[in-house]
Design goal:
The complex is a heterodimer of chains A (315) and B (670).
Chain A (H helix, E strand, L loop, with lengths): L2 H32 L9 H11 L2 E4 L4 H20 L15 H21 L3 H32 L4 H10 L6 H17 L18 H4 L5 H26 L10 H28 L8 H22 L2
Helix pairs in contact in A: 1-9, 1-10, 2-9, 3-4, 3-9, 4-5, 5-6, 5-7, 5-11, 7-9, 7-11, 9-10
Chain B lengths: L6 H21 L4 H26 L5 E5 L8 E5 L1 H24 L8 H20 L3 H19 L6 H28 L8 H6 L4 H19 L8 H7 L2 H27 L4 H24 L3 H28 L3 H36 L10 H4 L1 H14 L6 H14 L7 H33 L16 H19 L1 H16 L27 H22 L4 E4 L17 H11 L5 E5 L11 E5 L1 H22 L6 H20 L1
Antiparallel strand pairs in B: 1-2, 4-5
Helix pairs in contact in B: 1-2, 1-4, 2-3, 2-4, 3-4, 3-10, 3-13, 3-18, 4-5, 4-10, 5-6, 5-10, 6-8, 6-9, 8-10, 9-10, 9-12, 10-12, 10-13, 11-12, 11-17, 12-13, 12-17, 13-15, 13-16, 13-18, 13-19, 15-17, 15-18, 16-17, 16-18
Classes of the chains: A mainly alpha (315), B mainly alpha (670).
Amino acid sequence: MNLEGILAQATAMVVALVVAPLLTGWVNVCRAWLQGRSAPPLLQPFRALHKLFWKESVIAHGATPLFRLAPYVIFGCMLLASMIVPTLSTNLPLAPAADAIALVGLFALARVFISLAAMDIGTAFGSMGARREMLVGFLAEPAFLMVLFTASLLSDSTSLATIVTTLGHREFTILPSLALAGVAFVMVSLAENARVPVDNPATHLELTMIHEALVLEYSGRHLALLEWAAALKLFVYSCAGLALFFPWGVAQANHRTALALALPALIAKLAIGGFLLALIETVMAKMRIFRVPEFLATAFLLGVLALLVHQLLGA
Amino acid sequence: MIGSLLTIDAVLIVVAAWIVVGLAGIAAVRYPGFVAHGLFPLSAALSAALCGIALAALPGTPETAILAIGLPGLPFHLRLDALSSFFLFLVGIASAGISIFSAGYFRRGEGTPAGVMCMQYHVFLAAMAMVIVSDDAYAFMVCWESMALSSYFLVTTNHRIPEIQRAGYLYLLIAHIGAIAILLCFGVLQANTGDYTFANMRAQHLAPFWASCAFLLALFGFGAKAGVLPLHVWLPEAHPAAPSPVSALMSGVMLKTAIYGMLRVTFDLVSTPIWWWGVVALSLGLATAFFGVVFAAAQVDMKRLLAYSSIENIGLIVMAFGLAIVFRAYGMRSLAALAMTALLFHCINHALFKSLLFLGTGSVLHATNERSLGKLGGLMRFMPWVAWTALAGVIAAAGLPPSNGFASEWLLLQGFLFTGALPNPYLKMLVPLFAGGLVLVAALAAYVMVKFFGVIFLGRPREERLEQAQDAGRLERLGLAWLTAGCILLGLFPAAVIEAIDPIAFSLLGQGLAQGGRVGDWLMLAPVSAERASYSAPLVFALIVAIVLTTFLAVRRFYHGRVRRAAAWDCGTPFQTARMQDTAEGFGQPIRQIFEPFFRMRRELPSPADERPRYRVTIEDPMWAAIFVRIAAIIEWISGVVGTLQRGRISIYLLYSFVTLVALLLLTQA
């Protein structure tokens, strides 16, 4: 561990904390444009966070300490996840602490905590949200792992840094296994980030919500942490996708110049990705909850297919 | 002679002491207080001692002993090597927690007097330990049967309840079907030499056909004990029937003796596995794991849910077993060592977290007299000790980082991922598919565990009387804390665990994972190489804790920490009751719907015109109807046919004898 490494790690963390709400804001701006509404300011998520942090936390009678602990744990999981995904540089001192499988494990830990916290108060919506979240999770998690496995087999490693280094050094060809994995990845990230065909981030219509039902009882700083964690999750997923499928531009050496160049590259890629996400959300309709398992099973099977294609063709 | 005391003698002393404790229980049957608070803690201390002895014996050379008990000319051959030391350690560490918990739990006694239970319990413990150190088929079978019988009596502790009698009978029946297969397996392994010592079996080189016979018999026989499909049916019946510490012991420890048997036969006695055995084990393991987890998600009885979850975990272990066979058969010893390490690691993890969860249900059962998930809820407020320790168990069972359950599943996945060097192209395609099935099972396990914890401990109490629930007593807390500490320590320092169990892989496969070097330091686990894969449980844990603390302090520094208590918001619903929460059936509904073809469901759905609408769904195991009911029908048919011979008249029977005699005479003439 050297100074450059610590610098890269610290930069990655600060960038994640700052860029994540910006990405959420940018998606909202794009969606407003595409839907012909006047857009909220780009910094709106920060204002919302600031406002929420100032508000007092209203907690239901009978809530256990688990309920108050959960937002911190979830925020911790997401921030840790953002520290191990190579966003700007592959030279992260903390990256060896967790590989691709552990990354999925961190998401699962956060999911279990939010579901348990939602069940804690004992409201109808809370337990319904927990059940739906776990339903989405148990299908999305294996699908995401299949995508990561495909990339792991391509680079003979489950370490994210090694995957990005290997994939970043190959010439630009579309590998059939990666193409299938890419489709699966998009489907999974829509589901995991509570986006439109699966969930609607803007809804408070009782019967359709998943993520909103989970955080229904939270307010004040706890809600702020959960919202920030959700933004971080979108950011981490986007970065993981960019790292797997468009790894060009991620700094692979200990140069401050490379690091400095990586940031604009990342922001440009995220801007395009965010716009595409808003486009998907605008042109697609939300599915019925009963269709979600089919949607995710498709993603899982595509992931498995990607793995098989890799084994068959070696590509 | 003290100077020449071998480690195996120390093990035998512990076993003998257990028997003495059991006899003392019989003697003190009138003093249940002494049995509970005197004998069980003593037994826990013996378990802890066994733990230490086994740990010391793990890296050592194998030791043998001959115990002159039993039939004349047929002494018990005993042997303590790395594999048996590991499983003795597992017995010790889990039973130490369970025994100390039992000291609190059995103070009231159940259907059987505490003193008698104490006897059965310690015979069970001693038999499990002896199974593991046996070195000939005769000793093995005697101990195996003592284990089955003593656990049968423990299962039927509340023997006046008809369902429990039925569960016990089913358990005994399947245990014996398995035992016959194991006996036949040893018969094949001795290869007509008439010498039933394991040393002789190791020396034999069986033809592939006979070796395969032995393997399949072992898989069937030990699978019956472990709960491998389709012989798993006794598990969800026997575990809920038994008192909770006994369920913990059976699920956490006894199932592992079956795994021990599989390993002993396949890697030690046969020693040259064939690749397709691995495919059989992988397929059977995946089917078992998947079936177990899907059924666990649909259960509404907390102990039955855990029993199905045990089936799932056994499935995962059998998958690792299959993977190890495949790699071993192709001579890829370091990868076989990886799979073997994952297998052993998962065995001990499951022993700890499943015992912990079963003990937790025991405390809940004592506090509420309720096993049905639909009538529990909100117990975290009234039983914080049980709830928080159960949470640790749930996180481990769901395989979440940084728990021990995650560490072993991580290792197993590493084994599944790096199969590119396999020479067989079909296997190369198949193994990643198994990896896909494995992650699906692991993700479903999280669903099951959220259901288990959420419905029992979170939400509002579904019955009013739950608010009087008492937390576990002092000794029970000690037992729970012991197992929780085990889960946490094994989770945080996986590299140390792997190094400790490396001699086993070395002795069975000829190559360990560490291979003279290290699998990383205490901080970083890197089984193959740091570029390929690494995981650091202490770092993940420390970072999450650091972020949580920093955030907690920063929010208070820059903003404030004010909190107001109010009624739950619930989208403004003005009137809320505990009945509005998800029931256990409701929480499992998506799984029932997605995997509908797996279940045999009977539903009662109300029509809109019903005066008293009633919704009911009962779930049955399809294996019953598909296999067991049919076999029973065939046996009944055969007995019917044979029964026609019996006329009940002496003249007819004399005629039979006459005909037989004539037939025999004709045969000897020819």
